[in-house]
Amino acid sequence: MSFSSSPRGLEALQARHGGRYPWLVLAAMACGMVTAVLSATIFNVAIPALMADFHLGQDRVQWAVTGYMAAMTVAMLPTAWLIERYSFRRVFLGAVLLIGIGSLGGTMAWNFPSVVAMRIVQGLAAGLLQPMSTLLVLRLFPLERQGRAMGILGFGIILAPAVAPIAGGFLVDHFGWRAIFLITVPGSLAALAAGHLLLPHKPPARAEHPFDWTGLSLLTLAILSLLQTVGSLHAHGLLSPQSGIGALVATAGIALFLRHARRVPGPILALGLFSERAFAMGTLVSFIFGVGLYGSTYLVPVFLQSILGYNAATAGLALLPGGIALALMTPGAGYLADRIRPHRQTALGLLLFAISFVLLALLAGISLCLPLLPTLMGTVVIGRIGLALILPALNLGALRPLAQRLVGQGSALLNCTRQLGGTLGISLGAVYVEWRSNHLGQPAGSAQAFAEVFALVALAFFLALGGALSMGKPATAATAAGR
């Protein structure tokens, strides 16, 4: 962000708005982020309507979801370079404009490929916006207020997925699937207006290094291969030749990128990021956090319906207290992150979430004998409190020790690994449950399969505790020197 003294520069805007300025900019960013999150989460309720309208099967309609996820994940990578080259303001306004274009284009889609194309446009915008929110907090807020800012930003981001299924269902039922694209238009317009008024002008700068197209291509190859492999596990199986080839291509892409990054002066992701222990451990924890966040969002509702026999409405109602607890706790967790060391808060959140899944595993083991809904609701609340504690503290603990020039790339990578963890959490959880259910037999086998996968998630979070605690160790001399 610019510190220019021009009438539209940062100093002038700060003088005009006083102490409110950082919070006003945070509100503008939150508006854009909530719009992006809505574009991601509201679409799922329209899948049955799209299948009926375009006469598609589940295998083809999922391209709209996969295309969005792939575009979002890949778009996170060049965010830091784009901000350095074109300024925070231009990238933010451009990303919000892309969401609006994708939304309006989706309402006018004439066939299913055009729907997929507009979802990819929305995904690109969402991928650019996600790392920017953390970067904004670290650059604009003093150290003692960063946790509170992250908590407030997280509240809006968490609230959007809770509202999206309800709002989306109403729109699809009354106006058809095209209406779900329109719900993001008001937020896009509001974010454009707020960003135009509040974000400081900065002339385009000459980037220190040319854009690393080779590095982006190699990482894109690895990410797309991984997403495709994981997304096709249902159809092909974990040990199929297709899965093996996909895993091999993904591994080769990462290996080639590492080789490339050591030889060029400005790779899209600097390997020096991992010389800082806090960031390296934070990346691991972010991956496992994504596994738990997205995996639990998928596994728990399926368990409630397929094993306990509840309908979709009851399953949603059972998860409501957990969603409320998550939303209410996140601002307080941000406030807490300003008062205790972030790695300790992250570890506490991981411990609570792991305990909740241990309890879920025990409940799944006796689910065919006892009515468990009230106890299960309380267990989910414990896990959601844990997630709320992790959300604002993890980014702060991982990114604060980095040299300033690496913070943008670090934020992009943390978001990317969380998204990849979520994709793996959903797909591998579903494949494991299906495999074990078939192996053990119905219906007791299915309950046992869920108990086992809940226990595996808990184990992953217990293992992540060590990584979170390692984040609190002193910064290395290399990173402190800004190498």
Automatic annotation (TrEMBL):
Record has Transmembrane helix as a keyword: yes
InterPro entries recorded: EmrB-like, MFS, MFS_dom, MFS_trans_sf
Transmembrane segment boundaries: 21-43, 63-83, 90-110, 116-138, 150-171, 177-199, 211-233, 239-258, 278-300, 312-336, 348-373, 379-399, 411-433, 445-465
Gene3D superfamilies for this protein: MFS general substrate transporter like domains, Multidrug resistance protein D
Topology in membrane: Multi-pass membrane protein
UniProt cross-references to PANTHER family, sorted A to Z: MAJOR FACILITATOR SUPERFAMILY MULTIDRUG TRANSPORTER MFSC (PTHR42718:SF9)
Name of the protein this chain belongs to: EmrB/QacA subfamily drug resistance transporter
